Structure formats: structure tokens, C-alpha cells
Amino acid sequence: QNAEIKKSSSSSKTAVKWPYSSWDSFPSVFLSPLTSMEDDDGEVSWHSNRSLEYDFYRDSCPEAERIIRRVVHELYEVNSSVAPALLRLVFHDCFIEGCDASILLDAATGIDSEKDSPPNKNLKGFDIIDKIKSEIEMVCPGVVSCADIVALAGREGVVQAGGPFYPLYTGRRDAMHSFRDVATSELPSPNADLSETLASFASRGFDLRETVSLLGGHSIGVIHCKFFQNRLYNFGRTNKPDPSLDTGFLNLLRSRCNDRMNMAYEGPGVDFGTLYYRSLLQGKGILYSDQQLMAGIDTGIWVRAYASDISLFPRDFALAMMKLSNLRFLTGSKGQVRLHCSKVA
Ligand code: HEM
Ligand SMILES: [Ca+2]
């Protein structure tokens, strides 16, 4: 049994409203104990069979979660781009060998850094994690893992940007390795078609609905032109633009990119999510892989649902983010707690 949240069973029985603003208001129905994966081969057991806990640092570092919330809040007030940066970090960490801060390690002897993998080239937010870590180290040295900081800071970023709060257990430990080649081959591509994207998420245990909701992460942040340049003039060697692009939007993207400006997603706000799905309905998805959600009947149904029902997306997104943040993790005596997030201790 993987560490996942039973979504359909719990959500159908309770009429819940989202967003919750904190742990206190979160219904206990979602807090069934997490059971982490058993070692099935008894060999490469980088995950342990111990699970995460509610408020793991309650005795060892009771200030930890408050510090994370404060730092993210303070930085967000100065520059709202911290929110998308932190959210994307969670995705890129947890998707590759679990939520183990493998994404944070710098290249070193014996470390093939994931930062050097092409899909991670534009990743941001490492400085934010370092800042949080150093503030926490001043209060309780050597206690709080970088993996927990990534997951919790990502959550705070979502909340700051107007997205839903979701509760997270803690106690993840940090990997001693980084997985550059795995990241290169297994992070999804912006040029992937729908079946490839669905297969990629299915390989991590996400069903179609969860995949559509996770892509709502693209409600915030910036996207560089190079990731959709091929859609503008010569799509699939046709010498024509991507036919799934709305014409007016195509012209907008062309002019922005000619002026060497990048495309911003909708930006933060009360409508976290809704506008992203509405733009897909209008053929205004920026990435090919985003727009592909409209290429399937089933995925299109969820896009429509999220575009029209403003309370459905926050709920589904919160549950999918909980699942992403618990995808796999190291606990117990596996891994370590790093002193600096970019180096093995
Ligand atoms: C098919 C899956 C996905 C693909 C192909 C993909 C690809 C990309 C690409 C190419 C960018 C632009 C990076 C840049 O220009 O610097 C981006 C940005 C971003 N992605 Fe994704 N992504 C995927 C799924 C997700 C998921 C599941 C999340 C989170 C739940 C996410 C969160 C973000 C965020 C927040 C940004 C903006 C980052 C920033 O502005 O700092 N992405 N993604
Ligand atoms: Ca990882």
C-alpha cells in the first residue's frame, strides 16, 4: 500500500468546503494514518516502512513550520514569484525518487546533480530554501530536513498565491544522492502529447483526474518562450503553427516572444485555477502539454468541471498536492538530515 490519500471514498461522504485556512479547520476524515511502502525486494530500501507523522518536529523543533510560513510570507510580499518557484520545486523533487530533497544537491564528487538535468535548467527557489534552512538551523541545528522544508514551503507558496491550504505530515529525510539521469528521462516534457503525459503521471500513481488537477499548478508563474517556440511557426515540421492554438493568442505569443518577453501564467489571485482551465477551453494553453488536456474526452470533462465549478478545483488540487508531497520518502534511519541543503552532510 502506497502512502496515498484515499480521495474518492473520503470526499464523497463529506460535504467539504475548500480552501481550509489551516490545520485547525481541516476535517479529520482526511487524516487517516499514512502507511508507507513496504520493501518488496528487501534490497534497495531507500524508503523505510516507517511513516510520516503529524507535526513530527513538535518536540525537536516546534518553531519549524512557523518559520517556514513566515519566511515564505515575507518573501512573497516583496516578490510574488517565490510562490510558483516553490511549487515547481515540490513537483520536480517528489516526481524524481520521491520527496527527498534530491533536487537540491549540487554537483560534487559522486553526485550527478539533478540541477544539471535539462528539464531542471530553469528551476528557481533554491535560495529561498537555503534562507529558510539557515533560519531554522539557528533555532534547532541539524533537526529539520530539507525534504520537509521543500514540501512545506511549496504548500505555503500555494496558500500565498491564493490556492488551497492542505495539511502535510512531516518526518521526511534527505537523500544522499541526486538522480540527474532519472530526472532527464522521467520529468514530463512540454512537448508531450496527452497519452505520454497521462502515462508519466500514471507511473507515479496519479489517475486522470488527479493529473488534470495537478497541471493546474500552471495557474501561476512564468514560462519562457523556448518551451513553446515550436508551436508558433513550425509545429511538427509543418511550417505552420500549432492548429490547437487560438489565432489571437498565437499572435500575442509571437509578439511577446519577438520582444524577448516571456509569458506569464494568469498570476496569483482569488481565481487560482479557474482561469488556467478557462484558457484551455479557449485554445489558450501556453504549453503544448497543457493544451493537450483538451485532446481527450475524459480529460476535457475535468477541464470543463474545473473551469466552471470554483470550489471543485481547490479541493482536488489540495488532495493531489498531498499525494504528490507523500509520493515516496525516506524515514527512520534512511537518508539523513542535511546541514546545508545543497550538500550531503
Ligand atoms: C506535463 C507536466 C508538466 C510539464 C511538461 C511542465 C513543464 C513546465 C515548463 C516547461 C515550465 C516553464 C519553465 C520556465 O520557463 O522557466 C513550467 C513552469 C512551471 N510549472 Fe510545470 N510542468 C508540468 C507539470 C507541473 C506540475 C504538476 C506542477 C505543480 C503542481 C507544475 C508547476 C509549475 C510552476 C509553478 C511553474 C512556474 C515556475 C516559475 O514561474 O518559477 N508543473 N512547467
Ligand atoms: Ca527527489
Automatic annotation (TrEMBL):
It is found in: Secreted. Residues 51-345 form the Plant heme peroxidase family profile domain. Binds 2 calcium ions per subunit. Binds 1 heme b (iron(II)-protoporphyrin IX) group per subunit. Its EC number is 1.11.1.7. Substrate binds at P188. Its cofactor is Ca(2+); heme b. It comes from the Eukaryota. PANTHER family: PEROXIDASE 25-RELATED. This is Peroxidase. It comes from Populus trichocarpa.
